[in-house]
Amino acid sequence: MAKKGILLVNLGTPDSPSTADVRKYLGEFLMDGRVIDVNPVLRTFLVKGIIVPFRSPKSAKLYKEIWSEQTGSPLLYYSILQQKLLQEKLGNGYHVELAMRYQSPSIEEALDRLKKGLVESIQVIPLFPQYASASTGSVIEKVMNLVKEWQTIPDISFVNSFHNHPLMIKNFAENSKKYGHENYDHVLFSFHGLPQRQLIKCDHTGKYCQKVEGCCNTLNDVNKFCYSAQSHDTAHLIAKELGLPKEKYTICFQSRLGNDPWVQPYTSEIITKLAAEGKKRLLVFCPAFVADCLETVYEVTEEYGSEFKHLGGEHVQLVESLNDSPLFIDLLEDLVINK
Length: 339
Fold this sequence. Notes:
- The protein is α/β, with parallel strands linked by helices.
- The protein has eleven helices and eight strands.
- It folds into two domains: 4-162 and 326-338, 3-Layer(aba) Sandwich (Rossmann fold); 166-318, Rossmann fold, CATH 3.40.50.1400.
- It has a four-stranded parallel beta sheet with strand order 2-1-3-4, with helices on both faces. A four-stranded parallel beta sheet has the order 6-5-7-8, sandwiched between helices.
- It is globular.
């Protein structure tokens, strides 16, 4: 009996926290034309001449802070668990593979294993809840570029996003309950940042993004594929699940790179503002990630935590990502069966 192929794809991680491996990872990641969407000549100059040489040693030190001798990269560790648990959940009628958009295991190798497994179809699930050209779009483009060379191409489908999936909303809400949002002065929904120009490119009317006040606050036909609008929707749904009043939480964006304007407000500026208002304890969700990684474990807990204390705050508490939660595996099963 032919099996159905499932390909889970996350962003990626260096093979080790060494400067050489981090340099290799950053080089592949940042040379993606959907990640740094500028003229290829300028991108090559920026990435290979400036960003990678200067950023690799610094990033390597950060990766060493979160790297485990037993399990390695947390993102890869939890992604492997997700693949194994989903395979167990789906059973013998499915062949589940895991890939990273950058580095190992590669999409090309995972697709080759599915092809050799004689699957009758392939469903690609990028593990990014909110759609962005630089993440989900890049995965789709990479898969299509690879399979177009095959002589026989099976049915292929893609999950565009799952930003409002009830099980994801419930999962993040459940993860936070052990901390009790009522014990914190304010709640942050901190999403990974993107340059504003990438959001503008998603506005096919040319008249809405960054031109209409509150353009991202509510999903509609114009902004339904907008990363920021989907992020706002995710945050509002989690807040509703928890019964959070609007004045109790803020939606913001982290991990800014370079001097161009990125999606705002910036998480670091919101933390500064809240500290100035006398807030002492912050609870932080990162619902753009389904597995804990550098951006959650280190950037939020260590960098923002230290910054907040320096400004007079007391504590920043990260709500763990979905990781190997049974609810998240149920969500993936639902995407496979019902998408």
